[in-house]
Structures are given as structure tokens and as C-alpha cells.
Amino acid sequence: MATNAAQAAREPETEKRTKILLVDDTPENLVSLEAALGGLGEELVLAHSGKEALRHLLDDDFAAILLDVRMPEMDGFETAELIRSRPRSRQTPILFLTGYRNEEHLFRGYDLGAVDFLFKPIVPEVLRSKVAVFVDLSRGNAKLQEQADALRRQADVLRKAEQRFRSLLEAAPDAMVMCREDGEIVMVNSQTEILFNCPRERLISRNIRAVVPGWGYRVRPGWQDDFGVPRPPVVQRGIELHAYPEGREPFQAEFSFSPLQTEDGVVVTCSIRDITERKKTEERIRELNTNLEERVVERTEALLRSNEELQQFAYVASHDLQEPLRTVSIYAQLLAKRYQDRLDGNADQFIRFIVEGSQRMEKLIHDLLDFSRVDARGADFFTRMNCEDSLADAIDNLRSLIEETAAVLTHGPLPSVTGDPVQLTRLFQNLLVNSIKYRGQEPPRIRIAAQKRAAEWLFSVSDNGIGIDPQYSEKIFGIFRCLQPRDRSSGTGMGLAICRKIVSRHEGRIWVESTLGQGATFYFTLPSRD
Length: 530
Known about the structure:
Mean pLDDT: 80
Radius of gyration: 36 Å
Number of helices: 15
CATH topology of the largest domain: Heat Shock Protein 90
Distance between the termini: 73 Å
Largest sheet: 5 strands, parallel
Strand content: 15-25%
């Protein structure tokens, strides 16, 4: 057995990888999170829903859980509440992932025990820094727990067999000192000699206060209660005191006291561990947390400045493009009018291509300007408004298109919200144009409705059009995304992108549910703020 112990001491310990749980219903998001955290070298466990995450928690413990807020069936808050209800996972750090800022969601998340919120798009460096802190904390806690368990097992063995006490004391990994109640040292092990840089012959019979001035263990008076039943010994753990070895610098140590009733009176066994490195590690973690918060603030400010510069660039670039494009368009139209059927070959066709291309480019620039102006309207434009008024304005703007296509529009009661009336009118208008444009053989039938859900209103715009393949349900909200070929569509692919930006500015979200050939329903939410 001694040979095996010596061999184990020579073999290097391999640090066990910690597990990190990633929960998101979107596979692309899981791939992004996995790529961002791959450099940590830890084991990443993926879950596509809250239920799947709970199944993983039944089998494993995790250093941290990255939890998407918006998921079908069971959202991130419901999942977090169930995680916190289990004692085993009650202390596991939860970092919520969300695509938009919502103070109510923040309050709810922190009430459920969230340690942080990460807003999409997530910066990989920030994500890795935050998760690395919790990985280090988890690994440190695991080591401390293992050490505490080892000490507890050791103390139990010592109490059960007093005759084996001396041999076990000598084999202990920490410094062990046995003292009388007044502090007189009666026994030490070899680790104590090393820790205090003093042979045991000089330590025995001295008072432990000579090397640990703050030592002050007191056995509670009387070892029997009022009925004569002996009281159990009082074990104290985790007491931190300063120790003063001979010829070396003082250090901070952690003490565990275990009293034992003997024929000669009460003997207190002290387990002593140098925690200097642990304290340095804790201090480094505190500094890392402080620096991390500062870096997050700096990165956030930099991103805000970058977004503002990009918006200004898009506005200026689009605005400056209009004048030369207008010149090209005017002279192309003059060529078409003056020299139609008078030039050789394919000249008429080429001129028509120039006119159509310049007109399309003008539409693209106009929509790009609209897209860049969405965030330019500040909070001063927000007011208490009725959504029925915005819908009525949108319908008036599309009156000729509605009459031309014989579209039938119906709607239920719509609420009053706090928002930008101009942009909400544009939101309804874009969604109605989308439903009319992508119609089937029958005249368009469009239904607009709203219902209250918790602290938000859920709006829906349903139609009987050609529908959308579910694989494109997210891509259609990108800029310049149009599912139909350009020769079959006069759109620029900016309408739904503008819709998403308007909804996002109002702290809501937008998505579509559809089956190809069976119409589509666009949903968007707005905070109620009653």
C-alpha cells in the first residue's frame, strides 16, 4: 500500500474538465456559443430546449448554464425557476442570453438567481471572460469541497479509534497539533514541523499561542446537560488566523478544531493549513471581476459608438448616391424617349435596362435611407397612441393597392401603447404590402388582431397568400432579402428588415409562422406599459 501511495504521489494529476451547459432552441446560436467557448478547453453540453436542459441536470453538475430567454414550450425564465427548485443545482450560475433589452426581464431574471445577462449579438471575448470566471470558481469550489471532505473523514476516523490516532495524525496531509484546553502542545506531526520551521521537540510543551497568537479555542463549560447526558464535542472549522513560523514570514492559515475527552481532560486537535495561495487566488478573482466589468463597459461603449458611426455612414452614403443616380436616370429616360426605334441593334433594350436598373437602385437607396433613419428618431417621438389610428393611416396610404387587388382587410380591437406613431404606421403598412404582394390566386384576405400577454401585447397579421418555407422564416428579416427572383418581384427586400428594426426599437420582437402554400402569420410584440 505504501508503494502505491508513493507511485500516486509521483504521477501528475490531470485536471478534470468542467462542464458548461448551453441552452438555445436555435442550432445556429448553439454553434456560435460552442465556437466562442471552445478555446476554454472545457466540456460543452448542448441542449435545444428547457426540457432537454433539465434532463442533463439530472445526471451532471455544471460550472455555469448559458440560457436563452426566448424558447418555445418552456422559456428561459421557466427553465431557470425549475433549475433553482432543485437543491443540487440551486447554486449553479445562470447567465441569460437575450436579443433585446427589457428591464422587466432583467428584474425577473435576477429574481430567479441569474448572475448576468448577455445581449445578442454576443461578443465572444466577453462571453469567454465571463464564463472562464465561473469555471475557475467551480473548479476552486470543487477542490475546497474535496479538501473539506477529506478533513471531515479524517476527523471521524480519529474520533472512532483513539488507539490509531497517533499513526493517522502522522499520516495526515496537513499540519496537525494536539493541545490541551489552555493551549499547551502535547503532540504534533511532521507537517507541523515543516509548516512552522521548527522541530517537534521544541514545539511540544510550548503554548500554541507562541506561534499562533490568536489561538483561542474554548471548550464550552460542562460536558453534561441538565439530565446528565454527555454533550458531544464541538467541532469548529474554517477559522482563519495568522501564524508566525520561526525564521520565516508570517502566513494566513485555516484552522479546524476537534475536541476529544480523555482521562487527562479535554484535548483539542488542530488541523492547520496554509491558505496563502488560496487568498491570493481569491484576490486575483476579485480583481478579475472588477477588470471584467470595466472591460464590458468599455466594449459596450465602443459598440454603441460603432453602431452610431455605421448609421451615419449609411445615411450619408445613401444620400450622396441619390444625386448622381438621379442624373443617370433622367438622361437614360431622355435617350429612351428621343431615340426610341431610331438606333440599331439592341439599343432600345439596353436603354430600357439602364432605366429599370436606375429606378431599382433609387428604390434601394430610398429603403436604405428609411432603414438608417429608424434609430435616428429619439425617445422624444414616443407618445401614448392608439394602434387603430396607425392601422387606419396605413390602410389609407395603401388605398389604391387594396382596391386594385380587391383585398379584404379585417381587424379586432387594437390597444393603446407607448410608441412612435409614424414608425408603427410604417410597420403595419409594410406587413400589409407584404401580404398583398405575395398573394395567391384568390383575392387577399388579411386579418389583424392583438391580445394581452403578461406585460406585452401580441399582434398578428394573417393572410391567405402563397406562404413561406419554414427554412426561410428567419432569413426574410435580413436586409435586401427577397425570396422571389428580381424579375418577378418589384420589391427591394428591405420591408421586413425595417419592420424588425422598428419592433426592436420598441423593445419587442417579430417572427413569422407559415407553411408553403397555406398563407402566413406575422407576429410582433410591444410592451404594454399600462
